[in-house]
Design goal:
Elements lengths: L1 H19 L15 E13 L11 E11 L11 E14 L5 E14 L5 E14 L12 E14 L4 E13 L10 E13 L1
Antiparallel strand pairs: 1-2, 1-8, 2-3, 3-4, 4-5, 5-6, 6-7, 7-8
């Protein structure tokens, strides 16, 4: 996993530099309507064989740069108080098993961020869009290069400053061609990830 190690090292060094620049003042991020967020998450894909026909053990590092915009002021008055944001992300996966190959996609994305805990902000997210991979014909689950990727998960953002945050989370990934060609068993995987965000 040298590729993933390099990414995680870069993320760790970036967060360390940000942390050392902090002062003693209290961090209390104010995310208003129109606030934009750019970030980078990276993780490692771990396979799920949901049926006996799923035989491929696909796995490898994933990189996900993204952009989002906050659409609402905080909604609600209790623990579920939160904000909705909408955006998009690029998805790159380097499949290292069963063969070394690649996949890349583009996914519109929606996120609900819980704001009741101030600088610690859990969130739930969903994304989906077109995805290209050259696994077609090389594994029994995939028959076309053009596919779709669906991603649903949750995470936590920890604000280091009013405009920077570290992220950790989990996603469930599903990749298939939507029935445009057969066979179409699709690929399912878990994706734990970490990363950082900037707000402006």
């Amino acid at each position: 996993m040298p590729f993933l190690a390099r990414i995680l090292t870069t993320l760790a060094l970036g967060s360390l530099m940000t942390t050392t620049a902090l002062h003693a003042e209290e961090v209390s991020p104010k995310i208003s309507v129109g606030t934009q967020e750019v970030g980078l998450n990276a993780g490692y894909l771990l396979p799920h064989r949901l049926t006996k026909d799923h035989t491929t053990k696909q796995q490898g590092p994933a990189v996900m740069p993204y952009w989002m915009m906050t659409l609402t002021d905080p909604i609600g008055d209790s623990w579920y108080r939160g904000q909705i944001s909408l955006g998009a992300e690029m998805v790159y996966i380097q499949f290292q098993e069963p063969i070394l190959t690649h996949g890349v996609g583009f996914a519109p994305k929606i996120k609900y961020t819980f704001v009741a805990l101030d600088r610690i902000r859990p969130y739930a997210e969903f994304a989906g869009g077109p995805f290209w991979t050259d696994l077609a014909g090389k594994i029994p689950e995939e028959s076309s290069r053009f596919n779709f990727v669906l991603m649903a998960g949750f995470g936590v953002s920890y604000f280091l400053t009013d405009q920077t945050a570290l992220n950790v989370g989990y996603r469930f990934n599903h990749i298939s061609n939507g029935g445009t060609r057969y066979p179409n068993l699709g690929l399912n995987a878990s994706l734990p990830f970490g990363g950082f965000s900037f707000y402006f």
